[in-house]
Amino acid sequence: MMQKSDMQNTQPRFATFDPRYGSKIIVTSEPITDDWRRWIADSKLAGDDDSLIMQRLVAHGISPSAARLEVSSLGKNPYFQSGYKFVQILKKIESHANILADLASLSPNSLKIENRDSISRADFLENYYTKNIPLILTGITKNWSALSLWNPQYLQDRFGHVEIEAQSDRNSDRLYEINIDKHRRKMQMTDYVNNVINGGATNNYYMVANNGNIQKTALRSLLDDIEVFPEYLDPQKIDGNCFFWFGPAGTITPLHHDPVNLIFVQVYGRKVWKIIPPYYTHLIYNYRGVFSEVDCENPDYAKYPLFQKIPIIEVTLHPGDAIFMPVGWWHAVKSLDISISMSFTNFVFPNQYAWEYPSITN
Fold first, then answer.
1. Would you say 261 and 326 are in contact if contact means Cβ atoms under 8 Å apart?
2. Do 317 and 270 form a contact (C-beta atoms < 8 A)?
C-alpha cells in the first residue's frame, strides 16, 4: 500500500520562473479534486471568464497546464452541457423576476403594505388573493373576546394542567426549523407559562404552529374566544388549518415563505415582520425547502452578497391586527413582547399549490 510520504513524492510538479533568482524553480502541484471540479462548473455556469477561473486554480497550487486542460475540457462534457441548458432557462426566469422588481421599485408604495379596516369577500378575492398582494386588516377581530381574555396568566389559569408541546433548545441549532423534530418537548402548560413570564427575551423556546396544540389538546376550546372570519375563511375546515403561537419576547421565525396563503392574527403583544416579495426569490439563497440560508436579523453579506440588493418591507403587528400573507411571499418574524397569535389557511378559495423544493446541502 502506498504510504502518505510516497503519495507526496508522486505529486505532479511544474516549473515556474522566479525573477528574484533568474531561474526556474520546481513547485509541487496540488491535485484537481472533485470539489475543485464542482467549483469550476459552478464558476462557468455563473458566467465567470475562463482566464479568471484558471488564475484562481493556479493561485491554489494547481499547475497551469492542468488548470487549462480542466477548464477547457469542461465545456465538452455532456453532463455539463445538459446542466448548461437548464441554467439558460433559469437565467431567463431570473431576468424576468429582475424586471418585475425594477418595475415595482418605480412605485412609491412598493415598500408599503396597505392597511384596511375590513374588506368584502369579492374585493379581497379580486384585488389581493388573486393578485398575490399582502394586506393588513385592522378591524376584523372586533368580535374576538380573545383580545381581552388572552394573556399568559389566562392560559395558565385555564390550561395549566394540560400537557402541551413546544420547541426547545433552539439556540443550540441554527437550523431549528428544518430540524424541528429534534426540538419537540412536552411539558405542562403551567411550566411553559412560567418559563415565558420569568425567562426574559429569548429564542430558545417557542410554541409554534407545527406543535399542533390547538388540534391535539384541550387548547382547542380557545376557538370559542374567536371568530373565524367567515367572509374569507371556511369555519368547517378548522382541523389542520388553524394554528396557535405563544412565546416570549425575542422569538424568531427565520426567513421563509409559506406554501399556501394564510391570515395571521396578533392577539397579545407585538411582532415585527420583515417581508420580501417573491420576485426576489433568486437572491434569497433558498437552498432547502421553504427557508433562506440568510439570517435576516444579522445578514452575512460577505457570504450572501446578493441579499444586499433586496429591499425589505417592515411592519409591526399590534393586538387585533391581522395580516394576509400571500403564498410565496418571504417573511421573517420577531416577537417584541410576550406574544400570542393565531394563523389560518382555511380560505373559502382554492389554497393548494404544487411546489418544487430545493435540497442543496453543499
1. yes
2. yes
Burial zone of 337 (CB within 10 Å; 0-12 exposed, 13-18 middle, 19+ buried): middle
DSSP single-letter state for residue 277: -
Cβ proximity of 285 and 257 under 8 Å? no
Cell numbers describing residue 310: 433586496
Nearest alpha-carbon partner for 216 in 236, 191, 244, 195: 244
Predicted structure pTM score: 0.87
What's phi and psi for 268, nearest 5 deg?
A: -140, 135
In order along the chain (362 residues), what is the average pLDDT of each group of 10 residues?
A: 38 49 54 92 93 94 93 93 94 96 94 96 98 97 97 98 96 93 97 97 97 95 95 95 98 98 98 98 96 96 96 98 98 98 98 95 72
Contact 359, 333 (CB under 8 A): no
Give the Cβ contact number of residue 50 at 10 Å. Answer: 16
Q: How far apart are CA 127 and CA 119, in angstroms?
A: 10
Q: What gap in Å lies between CA 299 and CA 303, rounded to an integer?
A: 9
Query: Which CA distances in Å does 53 have to 12, 28, 49, 354?
Result: 20, 20, 6, 38
DSSP letter (8 states) at residue 235: G
CA distances from 224 to 84, 144, 252, 355 (A): 56, 9, 28, 34
Distance CA(123)–CA(140), nearest Å, equals 15
**Burial status of residue 83 (CB atoms within 10 A of its CB: 0-12, 13-18, 19 or more):** middle
- Kindly report the number of other CB atoms within 10 A of residue 202's CB atom: 16
Can you give the pLDDT at residue 4?
Answer: 36
Nearest in space to 283 (alpha carbons), one of 100, 134, 161: 100
3-state SS assignment for residue 101: helix
